[in-house]
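Hi C.,

You asked whether I'd gotten around to modeling the 490-residue construct. I have! Everything is below, sequence then structure, no commentary in between.
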Amino acid sequence: MHASPAFPAPKNGPDPAQLSRRVQEMIAAGRVHAARPLMAALRRAVPPSAELCDLEARLLLREGRIPEALAELDAGIAMGGASVELLISRADARMQAHDVLGAAADASDAVILAPGHARAKAVLGVVLLEMDRPEDAVPCLRAAVAAEPRHASCVRAYATALERCGDHDAAAQVLADGIRAVPGDAGLRTAAIMVAMRTRDFAAAADIAEAARQDGVADAQVFGLRGHALSSLGRHEEATEAYAEALKLAPDDPYVRHLVAAAGLLPQSSRAPAPYLEAVFDGYAQRFEAHLIGLQYRVPGLLREALLTLRPTLAEGAALGPMLDLGCGTGLMGVVLSDLPAGPLTGVDVSDGMLREAEGKGLYATLVHGELEAFLARDTTDWPVILAADVFCYFGVLEEALRLCHARLAPGGLLLFTVEELQDASADEAEKGWRLGRQGRFAHRVDYIERIAAEAGFALRVLRREGLRSEAGADVPGLLVALERVRHDG
């Protein structure tokens, strides 16, 4: 969607127009090392110009040299004025520099300069999406896709905007149209599968993945998602085959390896990797609460009940001080504690999508994007209460997490959490104390929780069996756990 720079025909020597086309082709193909000497030749062949600055900046961006790209674009604008192409390129550079407001200003100016410019509208739509304004992004991206229906990344952005607006059917249709227009783009297939899975339509997700396989455009992620969808449908043998194909294509991908381990094709990993959790929850965030309500999700209420039992003065208006919500998700713990003098609340989660939903509730003083163990390792607060609602089901080995929580609790502080219970363990699982299930979550034995809590220095205050939620018409067995850091060890 970039216009080719217009350079004068040479009297002798290399043709600048041809050099420019080759540089652009190599930038598009990601061959930045090959593009660099051609760019140097082009600079020698033509005098400085705004068009040359734009092309140089695009190459610098591909090389990851963002400040230099911005300087080049500023020079181009100073030299030739704020053209649409320069504004679009600077908006892209500012986005990569995390200057969203600056990118929005440039993209808006580009659309004002050329209201019918498809790429300007596409960039503005993407910026608005980054600013969490999907309703404003939709018309920009709709116009861009209408003008360039084969631009796959724009189609994906348009579908994302529709989905964030709650129109999942329209998002699925946009992606289906995009797949017909660009059948060889695996990213469109992946996006369509994810939309189906987020609406719990696992049969449709499996069908889209199977079509991708038959068309020869299935990559490792498509195979991995197909396995996940088939597993959710109870078709475990077919899921295992799909996971095996995913592993062949991407043996080192953490998302793929976690799902393959869950299927039993690899030694079980000891925790769900952060990229897996981000991939699962970023797009799931807007439907998360509605889905859990449908599953009769009980975990936040169980933790509230345990907290009030152990700290009854909370109900009488006595404040406990700051609380840490690990894996806060969309902020459901903040909701169930909102009528109590609890807090201020700090939430930590690996998913930006979940944190956006939590922020919208206005119940958290601080929200932090990151892995919980990394946060605990660098944090210096002495917390009176740490909560982990339905979070440790993504960890097999819990020793380090409990050790870090103990170190961050004030003397007398409480750690309250839930885990899924492992009831029918094999001899190996009984020895380890945990098992990775087919859905990518871990279950833990009672004796394992008792042992590692004691090893971390905790006093066990509550450990009882509870149904955490309903799946396939049955309760998911779990454990409600409350641990206290005894006062004399601080």
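If it helps when you're writing up: The chain has a mean pLDDT of 84.

Thanks,
B.
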